[in-house]
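User: Show me a protein chain along with its predicted structure.
Assistant: Here is one chain, sequence first, then structure tokens.
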Amino acid sequence: MSYLLGLSTERSATVIVFVLLFVMASRVSVDPDMWWHLRLGEYILNTAQPVYADVFSHSFAGVAHRNHSWLAQIVMHGLWRLAGHLGLTLFVSTLATAGMVFLYRAGRGGIYMQGFVLVFGAACAAAFWSPRPQMFTFCFSAFLVYLLLDLKRNGRDRLWWLPVLLWFWGNCHGGYIIGFVLIGAFVLGEWLNSAFAIGASHISRGKIRKLIWITLLSLVVMPLNPLGFAIFAVPVDTIGISGLRHYIQEWQTPDLSQPYTWGFIILLLLLIGAMLASRRRLDATECIFVAGTFCLALLSGRNLSLFAIATVPIATLHIDEALRRRGWAIPRRARETPHRVMLNLALIVLVALGALLHLEYVSKENTAVTAVSLNWPVEAVRYLNVSALEGNLFNSYNWGGYLIYAARQHPVFIDGRTDLHRDLLADYVAVQESPGWREIFAKWDISIALIESTGHLVEQLEAAVDWQRVYSDDIASIFVRS
């Protein structure tokens, strides 16, 4: 009972905040790339080949695919086999919540204020929380920021985590380059703080040198990877895909009029207001983190989560400083009366029960089946699998991953593996333009087209005398060449 008396209102609020953040991350799995990641996880387990000659598309059949996300795909497939949609929901929610815990530990101030900022940070990042290997990048980035800021503010040196962290990161997702960018920005900021005596705190030059040497050691262990030294080319190769920002929405500049960016806007305004109100000394590391991730977020919507990771701890530091300056601090209670403890327990149980009900709803079979049928051509694929149709397939880009998983006898034309299909994006776009589809279909000897039931291409194929619609529903249509 004496232990329960330590369940203060503040500790209860901490539990409730993170349960609610877990709920924010729990949603029905509808990401189009989820399916091909699951299929590759299955393929790797069956063949032990993270680097493989492509068998999933006819457009690049036999071409080597250097799959940099192999370890994450094995984890995803294992959870899928174990618990289906519930497993993938837990995959996303656990990594998202763990990342937010690291940001909380990296911040400063009480849970009431930090919880307020964390909610907007989660709203900023949550637009791209989905069952994909990039969830490891989110969690690992948050952990790295925690390690660096803990060294800066509290002097705790846990830099030997870095080689282990970056090695796992490099085997889970090509976004590991973000880790080296964050370390480089931190080193530059702390060197400027030390050289020009700016900032409220900074680490010594000896610690900076140690951080540099450990980072170099991390680079040495990175090739211990199925890709070998090719792992270093992955980020450059991805960024160098010319059509990426033209054709793929998540790589485009975020549309600030859309609801998914509102968390970003609120977090940005909150950060600016906090920095003005705190009147803390200019800190080069903070400025580089904020300015750098802000520019990256404006370049590509997928970087909104990186902006949240870098700015949430900085925002809480400045808000805490502003509150302390004005004497607006909520006193902390180490122990509570039995009546308060019972009330705190009741609130935790109530919130936890609500979270379990939400988790049960988003992951149950009926909800998952409905979401899948609304987002992918389930019935069209069923028809394709039982029909005797033969020949090369043309498919919608967003459905490529699902077809890899569900229509295994029909290699796709294109899917979300942009590192493999980089040169195919222009052809895919040309198909959508009249009369470009005939030229591209002839180039790739297309005999079957599985596409959306509305749009320009449907009209073109419907009017073509040498093409026939053999299946149609509200979502998808299948055409075959006569």
